[in-house]
Amino acid sequence: MVPSQSLGPDPVAAVTPVASAFHRSPALPRGFALEGVDLSRSLYLLPTGIVGGEQAAAAVVAGHGWPIADGTLAFTALAVILRRPGGGATLSIAPFAEAVTWAEREHPDLCRHVSDCLHRIGRRRPAWGGVPMETPVVMGIVNVTPDSFSDGGEAFGTEPAIARALALIEAGATIIDVGGESTRPGADPISPEEEERRVVPVVRALAERGIVVSIDTRHARVMAATVAAGARIINDVTGLAGDPDSPRVAASGGAAVCLMHMLGDDPRTMQADPRYECAPLDLLDQMEERIATAEQAGIDRARLCVDPGIGFGKTAEHNAQILGSLGLLHRFGCPVLLGVSRKSFVSHLSQGEPPRQRLPGTLAANVAGLDAGVQILRVHDVAETVQALRIWQAMRAGA
């Protein structure tokens, strides 16, 4: 037998464990003061114990579970997360029926808050950008850029970009996300005019073929030009905060909108020591503000999708904590988009792999997202993701 020391360090043991975002409590909180408290920013619900297929249907019928987006998944337990005055948060988990009874008995305001959250979590998601949301879909990435972090230059130019998009559709993508500006950390910005020059011909050519096109941009001018060219979705990494004209332009164009969370609004500086009191909850509070801004601009919530913005103003630990609590995002009653493809958190939590060697970690995070009820997976590797999705669906259907 080969001595174990000759095998080198254990790569799994070498990984630093990720600290939990929440302190665990054995019982649901009781008797806390609600006078003057904004429950939406102090008490949060995380669906857990998620099951699918016949298990989900049986749990809902028996009153032991609640559906996610009126679909094939349901949760049978509920984690109640309470912000602590000195920072951090406490998490308590109870069976679904017990948590509902607790809310009803604890306080009328709490009962209303929990009821409102549950109904937003459970309601059916309308079609987004014309795409039904009853089952998860794959969004394929086409970067018409020379400097994107993992595929820069591969689809730089109108014809290569169109060819890449058609190949991704053939591989099973439902939506094509076209971007003309790299938003990786430290990337040099380009002018909206140059971005428009890169993406408009691609968007128009794909839209003319009947393909659902999303435009990945933070500039109002590019939003307007590409929606006019046929884009059905605006995907803004700044959540419509990067350009003062973006909310108005997005509202008037009629396209669906994906609001992504990013700490700050500048990709060049987003990774400069990002800090949160509690990353998953801070993200929710900031996303609530972005949704309110969008609605005030005239964008109906039925047109919105939310994206936690993995890798945008977050450390690897922040990303892991957010991925471990994705179900929190269902509180908005919108489809949830997850974009983890080839991102650096995979290598930071693993063995430092370069972007093209991060597919296994990407698939692991995406399957975890599916288990949490995510509706849209934004990826570079479409064929591999579609295969994983189909196996996941078959396993869930047979549960």
UniProtKB/TrEMBL annotation:
Residues 136-390 form the Pterin-binding domain. One of its GO terms (biological process) is tetrahydrofolate biosynthetic process. Its EC number is 2.5.1.15. Pfam families: Pterin_bind. GO terms for molecular function: dihydropteroate synthase activity; metal ion binding. It catalyses: (7,8-dihydropterin-6-yl)methyl diphosphate + 4-aminobenzoate = 7,8-dihydropteroate + diphosphate. NCBIfam families: DHPS (TIGR01496). This is dihydropteroate synthase.
